[in-house]
């Protein structure tokens, strides 16, 4: 099987991804970051009455057409405590922000513009106009008005207005369920002492974080030994949990100890492709096992993270009905870059800005795909297309942001 270009591999993967249709109801406090499944119409009118926007005095504008008008204060109104009477000619009501404007009043004179006199009398120090400092009923929204449309990616502003519309729960699309299966006799969990031929498993945690950061939920199938029966049992657990995607880490090639692809085929997986013209990350596997998509990422830590950014992230976001995250920008090389072979290269780099604000990318000297420290210290990946010629310092180059 020939090496597949990165763009074609991504298109083929996403073409078969169907956004999650299942709808669930969640408490409003858990709705941030979820996608609204139905239009949300207001259950009440906000504000439900003409309300004062300031502390001051509610009055009739016609009674105070000029500075120096004297009025009699007949009562008070505070938020949650309305004045029960009506304002007549020559009268005013002491009012506080959020309180209902009393019947008969149509304006508010702020307290700084009122001079207190003896008894219950005040004198105006500012001209009053009708409607001044009054929030009219329904100014924000009215009962039955659709305020949030289906498909809205909910954030702090949306949950605030949903609460104001009197919703304690919201109907949202279920998060895509991503099962993660790491294989390898050489792997042990962090916190344990590895044997003489073993290493600490790290990929699962980075891929777990990537899934959650892009709107998915994780089913961790744990570390599985390189035995067909153990791998088959883990695949069965993913199917029983109705995972939308099974992500395997390592073992997807066809070597003597790479059993994942063969075990998946025996379970009924239809293989689409499994080798990509990229570095790091050539052994990437894509297939489908009935309703579950399969994405096999390389076991090499950096290759796993790079292919996770390029393929798993857009897949999860499409399933979750989220817009694709824009990671690619344009920058300039800090130093010379050698010519490239037939595989698209992703070079780890530090990013900075020149005096004009242009992004400058300086590739690390060492690019071994097992070196996680360099990836953690990188800001972006310089993209080198297949068969790209040598690039001099100061030349433009595309960059994939690690932290967009």
Keywords:
404 residues, 30% strand, 19% helix, six-stranded mixed β-sheet, 7 helices, alpha/beta
Explain how this protein is built.
The chain has 404 residues and is of the alpha/beta class. 19% of the residues lie in helices and 30% in strands. It has seven helices and 26 strands. It has helices at 6-15, 156-164, 203-213, 228-240, 260-267, 301-319, 372-377; strands spanning 23-27, 40-41, 51-52, 56-59, 70-77, 91-95, 107-110, 114-116, 121-124, 134-135, 146-148, 169-173, 177-183, 187-188, 199-200, 217-224, 245-249, 270-273, 278-279, 285-289, 292-297, 328-333, 344-353, 359-363, 380-384, 396-401. It is elongated. The chain starts with 5 loop residues before the first helix and ends with a strand. The model has no long low-confidence stretch (mean pLDDT 95).
Topology of this protein?
Layout (H helix, E strand, L loop, with lengths): L5 H10 L7 E5 L12 E2 L9 E2 L3 E4 L10 E8 L13 E5 L11 E4 L3 E3 L4 E4 L9 E2 L10 E3 L7 H9 L4 E5 L3 E7 L3 E2 L10 E2 L2 H11 L3 E8 L3 H13 L4 E5 L10 H8 L2 E4 L4 E2 L5 E5 L2 E6 L3 H19 L8 E6 L10 E10 L5 E5 L8 H6 L2 E5 L11 E6 L3
Parallel strand pairs: 5-6, 13-16, 13-17, 14-15, 17-21, 19-23, 22-24
Antiparallel strand pairs: 1-12, 2-11, 3-10, 4-6, 4-7, 5-9, 8-9, 18-20, 20-21, 22-26, 23-24, 23-25, 25-26
Helix pairs in contact: 3-6, 4-5
């Amino acid at each position: 099987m020939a090496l597949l270009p990165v763009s074609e591999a991504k298109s083929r993967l996403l073409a078969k991804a169907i956004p999650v249709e299942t709808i669930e109801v969640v408490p409003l406090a858990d709705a941030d970051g979820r996608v609204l499944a139905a239009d949300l119409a207001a259950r009440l009118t906000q504000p439900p009455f003409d309300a004062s926007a300031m502390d001051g005095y509610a009055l009739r504008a016609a009674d105070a057409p000029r500075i120096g008008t004297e009025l009699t204060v007949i009562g008070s109104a505070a938020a949650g405590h309305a004045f029960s009477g009506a304002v007549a000619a020559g009268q005013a009501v002491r009012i506080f922000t959020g309180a209902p404007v009393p019947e008969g009043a149509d304006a508010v004179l702020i307290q700084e513009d009122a001079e207190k006199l003896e008894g219950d009398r005040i004198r105006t120090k500012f001209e009053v106009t009708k409607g001044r400092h009054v929030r009219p009923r329904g100014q924000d929204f009215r009962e039955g008005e659709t305020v949030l449309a289906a498909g809205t990616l909910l954030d702090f502003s949306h949950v605030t207005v949903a609460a104001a519309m009197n919703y304690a729960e919201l109907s949202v699309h279920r998060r895509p369920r991503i099962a993660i299966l790491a294989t390898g006799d050489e792997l042990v969990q962090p916190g344990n002492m590895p044997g003489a031929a073993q290493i600490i498993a790290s990929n699962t945690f980075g891929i777990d974080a990537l899934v959650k950061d892009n709107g998915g939920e994780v089913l961790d199938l744990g570390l599985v030994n390189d035995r067909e029966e153990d791998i088959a049992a883990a695949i069965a657990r993913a199917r029983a949990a109705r995972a939308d995607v099974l992500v395997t880490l390592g073992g997807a090639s066809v070597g003597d100890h790479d059993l994942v692809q063969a075990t998946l085929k025996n379970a009924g997986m239809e293989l689409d492709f499994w080798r990509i013209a990229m570095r790091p990350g050539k052994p990437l596997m894509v297939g489908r096992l009935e309703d579950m998509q399969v994405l096999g990422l390389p076991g090499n830590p950096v290759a796993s993270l790079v292919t996770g950014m390029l393929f798993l992230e857009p897949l999860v976001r499409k399933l979750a009905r989220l817009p694709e995250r824009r990671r690619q920008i344009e920058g300039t090389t800090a130093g010379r870059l050698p010519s490239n072979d037939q595989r698209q290269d992703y070079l780890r780099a530090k990013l900075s800005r020149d005096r004009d604000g242009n992004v400058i990318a300086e590739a690390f000297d060492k690019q071994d795909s097992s070196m996680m420290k360099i990836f953690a210290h990188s800001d972006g990946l310089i993209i080198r297309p297949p068969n790209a010629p040598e690039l001099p310092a100061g030349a433009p180059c595309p960059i994939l942001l690690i932290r967009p």
